[in-house]
Amino acid sequence: MNKSELLKDMTDSKFTIIDAVEVGHKYRLAIYKGTKTESIFDFVVRYRENFNTGWSRIRTPKHVHWIVDILIKRSHDREETLLFVREFEKLWNSIKPITIQGELDTLLSRLSI
């Protein structure tokens, strides 16, 4: 998807869009101008997630602090941040949940002091 299509896809009637990025083929993040009049630096982060049935509605993430950190890092070193996000995505996709009680017991015993 090209940039103009991405910006159009992430347009929200409540906010003025500043920028948008696609993270893999799973997420689209957008930054919007915030509405707090006391700060010209106020912004809002929203996202869409790709499910098997299509893209979700535009939503506000519950844990936005990691996104803010990525945005700040990106403004200082775009290439390094992109490498970090790609590696994080690989790690995220490789993690499998514990499904057997014995695995959970083993992990918990290793963590206990």
In total, the number of strands is 4
| Uncertain spans | none
- Biggest beta sheet attributes: 4 strands, antiparallel
Give the SSE order as H and E letters: HEEEEHHH
| Content of β-strand | 15-25%
* Terminal CA distance: 50 Å
Give the total of domains: 1
Looking at the structure, what is the overall shape? elongated
- Strands of the widest sheet, in order across it, are 1-2-3-4
Task: Count up the helices.
Answer: 4
Global structural class: alpha+beta
Protein model, in words:
The protein is of the alpha+beta class and 113 residues long. It has one domain (3-111). Helices cover 42% and strands 23% of the residues. The protein contains four helices and four strands. The chain has a four-stranded antiparallel β-sheet with strand order 1-2-3-4. Strand 1 and strand 2 (27-33) form a beta hairpin. Helix 2 packs antiparallel against helix 3. The longest helix is centred in the last third of the chain and has 17 residues, at 78-94. It is elongated and about 50 Å long. The N and C termini lie far apart (50 Å). The model has no long low-confidence stretch (mean pLDDT 86).
Map the helices and strands:
Elements: H1 3-9, E1 16-23, E2 27-33, E3 43-51, E4 54-55, H2 65-76, H3 78-94, H4 101-111
Antiparallel strand pairs: 1-2, 2-3, 3-4
Helix pairs in contact: 2-3
Short structural description:
Helices cover 42% and strands 23% of the residues. The chain has 113 residues and is of the alpha+beta class.
Features:
113 residues, alpha+beta, four-stranded antiparallel sheet
